[in-house]
Amino acid sequence: MKTDPIDRALMLRESLIQNDKILVADFRGTLQGEDTSKVIDLMPIVGTTDYPFRTKVNVKEIDPLASEKYETPFFDITKKTENEIEKFLRKQEFDFPLWYKHERQFNMKKVNFYNAPFTLQIAGCNFHTGNSSGGCWYCFVDDKNNNGLPGQGKVNLGINETIDSMLSARKKIVSQYQRLGHDTNLKVLRTSGGEPTIVLDWILNLWREIKKRNLDFVGQLDSNLSTATLVDYFESERIFEKFTLEKLAEYPIKVLTALKGVDDCNLQQNVQSVTSIEDQMYSLKRFVNSGFDIFPQMYNPDPKKLRNYLENVDNIIDNISLRIHIGPLKLYGPNSKRLTFEAQRKGVDEVKFIVDRQISWNSNYIQSCEIINNYLKEKYGVSYKEVTRSDVKLKVK
């Protein structure tokens, strides 16, 4: 059964924030924790045995430990020109380090400082029904970490605990790489989920404290683009301050905006929710108009509808198709488990069900990359991923 994303978000609000603390996932013993801690260990709240922080290396090839662990060729940025580094990174699945290209203190020769965000995960998603096969089919978040329910596997996290824990983790990680003869840092604080926009008031106060301490952090905020009307409502009810998005956009925070479908049918099939393209577009416009630098990642688009979607969204926000990356979908422990539950519910062969879904995802990805490449060549005269996304200026028409 599909969930209503706004009703679900209102319900989650009650459990996700209590007494100035937010409910986040504790990654110990989870499939997601195992999948994302292969290079850098999970990290605790300082002075506790709770582990709500993970650090995923985005571009494995520029990290000496990750390239060895995943057996990818090492791209040594110390021996490359700035142009070579930039060209290499914008072609990757995760070009995240380049998002900060125009931020103060950014240095292309030290782009690896932005390659492994210190990540906390809001423990509830408004696309998720709370059952074992709810939410986005391809999501790699464990279902219990998306259901919004307090209890085992969750922890309440405060603002100063977050900052102190990142500073402690930074010291440990920098020392670890220095012992191996490599220079790195931990610059990016990522608020992931779940759906972080449900607790924007806490996130705004987090960044106020970061500024107060004069720390050199930059940020990443994730959004599934379903909650702009919720933000409006929370502001009208004084749950959020007026102009919360605009105030948050004053900080060096980049927004990962997830495009999870290109028409209502495609979107709702992917996320198992009654959200709409209209909701997606309104949320996109709210982020851009608020002053955020957004980076759209598209997942499992319907190739038959993609061209029309690109034309429409470019008519709403200038140049936005140049910023869209299409993400390949892979089988991880959590989404394999979700698909297994669904196959059991349907009474069909589990292996065939998962294989068929993977084939469909791969086919849609390959076709969609070709479609967006042809579209960008025709409209802008450039190939897909030929332009660094942070160089593209956006404007709502």
Describe the structure in brief.
It contains 13 helices and 12 strands. Strand 1 and strand 2 (21-25) form a beta hairpin.
Secondary structure topology:
Elements: H1 5-16, E1 17-18, E2 21-25, H2 31-36, E3 53-55, H3 64-69, H4 82-90, E4 118-121, E5 154-157, H5 159-179, E6 188-192, H6 200-212, E7 218-223, H7 228-236, H8 244-248, E8 253-259, H9 264-271, H10 277-290, E9 293-299, H11 303-316, E10 317-318, E11 325-327, H12 333-346, H13 350-380, E12 395-396
Parallel strand pairs: 4-6, 6-7, 7-8, 8-9, 9-11
Antiparallel strand pairs: 1-2, 2-5, 3-4, 10-12
Helix pairs in contact: 5-6, 11-13, 12-13
Protein architecture, described:
The mean pLDDT is 95. The protein has one domain: TIM Barrel, CATH 3.20.20. The protein is an alpha/beta fold. Helix 5 crosses helix 6. The protein is globular and about 50 Å long. The protein is built from 13 helices and 12 strands. Strand 6, helix 6 and strand 7 form a beta-alpha-beta unit. 45% of the residues are buried. The strands form 3 sheets. It has a 7-stranded mixed β-sheet with strand order 3-4-6-7-8-9-11. Helices cover 41% and strands 13% of the residues. The two termini are 36 Å apart.
CATH superfamily: Aldolase class I
N-to-C CA distance? 36 Å
Q: Output the strand order for the largest sheet.
A: 3-4-6-7-8-9-11
State the major sheet.
7 strands, mixed
Ranges with pLDDT <50 over ≥5 residues? none
Which of globular, elongated, flat, extended, rod-shaped describes the shape? globular
Number of strands: 12
Q: Approximately how much helix is present in the residues?
A: 40-55%
Q: Please identify, by name, the CATH architecture.
A: Alpha-Beta Barrel
What is the N-to-C order of secondary-structure elements (H for helix, E for strand)? Answer: HEEHEHHEEHEHEHHEHHEHEEHHE
Q: What is the fold-level CATH name, i.e. the topology?
A: TIM Barrel
Radius of gyration over alpha carbons? 20 Å
